[in-house]
Amino acid sequence: MIRTQTADDICTVTLDRPACRNALTPDALEALRNAVETTDASVVYLHGAGEAFCAGADLDVVADLDDESVEAFVRAGQRAATALAETDVVTVAGIDGPARGGGVELALGCDLRVATPAATFAESGVSLGLFGAWGGTARLPRIVGLGEAMDLALTGRVIDADAALRMGLVSRVVEEPREIAETIAAHDPRALQTIKTRLRDTASRADQEDREVEAFASLLKTASFDD
């Protein structure tokens, strides 16, 4: 269900159940989390096999959840999305085809979401009488704003790549999302980690500025100014 391959400092994580649009089981979510947390690469590139990015949770599994197993499944999804968000490694979602429900939430956990023109998005949980519980209610409004988040989550409507770009759900629409991951991986991994850490800092402005000085001075010792 989850395939990983590392080359050129990129750990490619493939959601590999194309027959069911890469729907995710608890085991697949744990394998995804483990791949992100154990990689030695400087970039994780997450994408789906076949014609979809990810349909979200496997509904056959969801339908059979009882009171004891429902929390375990939700927590597994939360851990996978949080691993993508909190790792020091840069995470890039390459979204080609449909991203639905939990698929959107995994993408929200990534640092960059890069779509192809064929990508579509929907927070489809409401159509089942549910909602996005893999961190979606926390991350979606922070990324697209509360108004857009309410619209997507309450209607379950499908949007295309251009609409996703306009609202900030994705950062680019390109033919080959992997090329963005390759561009990032070509840079110094220490700089990448430092940039990600600095951009995520929520301390006071004064504290952030002090940490910028310290981090910049540290990187300067190994920086290269050769053309």
Describe the structure.
The protein is an alpha/beta fold and 227 residues long. It folds into two domains: 2-182, 2-enoyl-CoA Hydratase, Chain A, domain 1 (Alpha-Beta Complex), CATH 3.90.226.10; 188-220, no CATH class. Helix content is 48%, strand content 17%. The protein is built from ten helices and nine strands. It has helices spanning 26-38, 59-63, 67-86, 102-109, 136-144, 146-155, 161-167, 178-185, 189-200, 205-220, and strands at 2-7, 10-15, 43-48, 90-95, 98-100, 112-115, 120-122, 159-160, 172-173. A six-stranded mixed sheet has the order 1-2-3-4-6-9, sandwiched between helices. A three-stranded mixed sheet has the order 5-7-8. Strand 1 and strand 2 form a beta hairpin. The longest helix has 20 residues, at 67-86. The radius of gyration is 18 Å and the shape is globular.
